[in-house]
Amino acid sequence: MKEEYLHYIFRTKQLGENFTTTKNLNVEILNFGLFNTNSGPDFLECKIKLNGKIWAGQIEFHVKSSDWIKHKHQNDPNYNNVILHMVFEHDLEITSGQYELPVVELKNVISQSHYLKYKTYMNSKNWIACQNDIQSVDDFIIFQQKEKALLNRLSRKSKSIINLFEHYNGDRKKVFYIVLFKAFGTKVNQQAFKKLGENFDHKVIAKLNYDLVKIQAYLFGISGFLTEKNEDKYFLNLQKEYAYQKQLYSLTEMNIKEWKFSTMRPSNFPTVRIAQISQLLSNNLKVNENQTMTELIQIFKTKTDDYWERYYMFGRVGKRKNKGLSLDFINLILINVVIPYLFAIGCATDDEKLKEKTFDWLEQIKPEKNALLNKWKKMDIEIKTVADSQALIELKNEFCSKHKCLNCKIGQYLLKFKGH
């Protein structure tokens, strides 16, 4: 038995409102209170009628009564106003101050068939616990859960961005570039690009008059790529420019060993990605909530300069021309950078219209294609836009894989109490 199950069947009122204590006193729940997800008693601001007398306070749940002692609640003043102790198994009388807590034992109240179904879901080895039952769930329930999962995903991503706002004293541009650079690194060079973004000073770009060659020198310089020896003329030109910038702006370089090239396609080489970022910066990259999806895509749809169209590393010509950012990669940037960034601003400023607009943008992008989403499709789950695909990725990773069925509207529907 888990406490979360007891919380669930109580807060969803699946056990009714009337109980009998271990001392054979009648208890009626007049107000189920507020479920507390922080420290302290489980349900706050409750109201009960105990043996004809009304009490107001908190309700605490445990698997065993003795867990009160085990969790050291007797030493915590936050539990002084507990008015009812609800447990699966009563094994010890508990006194709070001079007051012996009334106890409701739930062992013989809970539906065994319902608990067995819950345990089956918790112990399921299927790709998702409800895999064999999800076809019976109403489409509207699935839609509601997708909306919940999508909000969860955006909120989770925006939280780290808001933390960066605070860390960099509200410098939104700095934060945007850190998140942008990190995304350009994909999985292999994510940390290296994040570090590059942290070392990057967006104010320097304006001082360089948005000159592409100077920006390339700046980025390739602080990333460490200009510390090696190379006879390539373009390399030597950037190296000379960076030497001047280094003295002027007191710059330092990353260790070139932080960058990875192995197992990567040339189009994903960090050198190519840095050249692409340089191109965006030379165009005075700006994103804001007033731009349409078409405008946002156009901002990132830039061509690579002549050198990096042919080269993938300094002095090394590629077999194919580098055509710049693909639409798939642009969508990845919009999904993982632009939209979470603007959603974070909406959260930080309590701008509901901006938050709503980020959902609208997600509805305008085609869904990703991957093995995870293919499994949802096999269960006939609708995936029309990236809002759907992002929601289903979140549902699988943050709900299903963690067996959070009781927090999922689909799980709640399937685990709806149907009597003993």
Characteristic key phrases:
420 residues, alpha+beta, seven-stranded mixed sheet, elongated
Structure notes:
The chain is α+β, with helices and mostly antiparallel strands and 420 residues long. It has helices at 3-11, 67-70, 112-122, 139-167, 172-184, 190-199, 202-207, 212-222, 233-249, 270-282, 293-300, 306-310, 327-348, 352-362, 371-378, 386-400, 409-414, and strands at residues 18-20, 26-31, 34-35, 43-50, 53-64, 82-89, 95-96, 99-100, 103-105, 311-313, 316-317. Strands 1, 2, 3, 4, 5, 6 and 9 form a seven-stranded mixed sheet that branches. Helix 4 packs across helix 13 (327-348) and helix 13 (327-348) packs antiparallel against helix 14 (352-362). The mean pLDDT is 92.
Number of helical runs? 17
Uncertain parts: none
Distance between the termini: 17 Å
Record field, number of beta strands:
11
Strand content: 5-15%
The whole-number mean of residue pLDDT values reads 92
Shape: elongated
What is the H/E order? Answer: HEEEEEHEEEEHHHHHHHHHHEEHHHHH
Class per helix and strand makeup: alpha+beta
Helix amount: 40-55%
Rounded to an integer, what's the Rg over CA atoms? 29 Å
Largest sheet, strands/sense/barrel? 7 strands, mixed
How would you briefly describe this protein structure?
The protein has 420 residues and is of the alpha+beta class. Helix content is 47%, strand content 12%.
